[in-house]
Specification:
The chain is mostly beta strands. It has a domain at 16-106: Beta Barrel (Thrombin, subunit H). The chain is 3% helix and 38% strand. A hairpin with a 5-residue loop joins strand 2 (25-31) and strand 3. The relative contact order is 0.19.
């Protein structure tokens, strides 16, 4: 499986919404090119307010209309296949876009467009060794 494209800061500012690495369980349905309906249990790899990146076993094509059903909320949304990416381990990365932006579908809060890790609201990451439990080595069993 490939990793999402890493873009320059200038290019990232052109994005319509922030990307979040998030696995959301979905039921994906649609029609194959021969008209036969399919349904697949799948999950996301990356999400944003306008769509996301799915991992699918089903062969789909760019421009194909799919229906996503969020398995935890049972909410459904229509989307279009925008990109077919890398294939690995029997699944393909499929970029989808909602017919209308819907940031609430994923049930996460997206950061504002002007957010960066250096923003005043960003929490600093500090390492505190006391926050980890102390593990005493166990004697080897004979």
């Amino acid at each position: 499986m490939s990793t999402p494209n890493i873009r320059s800061a200038a290019s990232a500012k052109q994005r319509r919404s922030q990307r979040i690495l998030l696995s959301v369980p979905l039921e994906v349905s649609g029609k194959r090119s021969n008209g036969v309906a399919f349904r697949e249990d799948a999950s996301t790899f990356v999400v944003n307010a306008h769509g996301g990146l799915l991992l699918l076993k089903e062969v789909v094509f760019e421009g194909q209309i799919l229906t996503l059903k969020h398995t935890r909320t049972t909410e459904e949304i229509s989307c279009t296949v925008m990109n077919i990416g890398a294939k690995a381990n029997g699944v393909t990365e499929v970029g989808i876009e909602f017919s209308k932006p819907n940031p609430k579908f994923w049930r996460v809060s997206f950061p504002p467009e002007d957010w960066t890790p250096q923003s005043a609201d960003a929490k600093p990451v500090t390492f505190n060794p006391r926050s980890f439990p102390t593990v005493k080595p166990q004697p080897a069993k004979k």
